[in-house]
């Protein structure tokens, strides 16, 4: 996952905080992501590949950094599956 420069983060973090306050349902998140892609991507195969790649790598990073850690905590709390 590419980590962006520190000086850019506060502006994007404010935008993220606003979106978190507005988006309360999974369908709303899907709508925003689709709208962002539809309005922000110029029509070319290369651009589609770059954007889809960024989305896929973001999913991997969410799993690696958030979901796997959660699962490890639950194994410690409840024991592993036999």
Layout of secondary structure:
Elements: H1 9-22, H2 26-40, H3 45-78
Description:
With 82 residues, this protein is mainly alpha-helical. The chain folds into 2 domains: 1-40; 42-82. Helices cover 77% and strands 0% of the residues. It contains 3 helices and no strands. The protein has helices at 9-22, 26-40, 45-78.
What can be said about this structure in brief?
With 82 residues, the protein is mostly helical.
The number of domains: 2
Q: Termini distance?
A: 33 Å
- What Rg, in angstroms, do the CA atoms define? 17 Å
Largest sheet: none
The chain-level structural class is mainly alpha
The DSSP helix count reads 3
Low-pLDDT segments, ≥5 res: none
What is the H/E order?
HHH
Shape category: extended
- Share of helix, binned: over 70%
How many β-strands, per DSSP? Answer: 0
Tell me, rounded to a whole number, the average pLDDT.
91
Work out the strand percent.
under 5%
Top keywords for this entry?
single chain, mainly alpha, 2 domains
């Amino acid at each position: 996952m590419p980590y962006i420069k520190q000086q850019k983060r506060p502006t994007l973090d404010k935008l993220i905080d606003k979106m978190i306050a507005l988006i309360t349902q999974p369908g709303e998140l899907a709508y925003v992501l689709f709208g962002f892609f539809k309005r922000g991507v110029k029509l070319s195969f290369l651009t589609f590949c770059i954007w889809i790649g960024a989305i896929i790598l973001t999913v991997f990073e969410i799993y690696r950094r958030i979901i796997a850690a959660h699962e490890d905590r639950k194994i410690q709390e409840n024991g592993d599956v036999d």
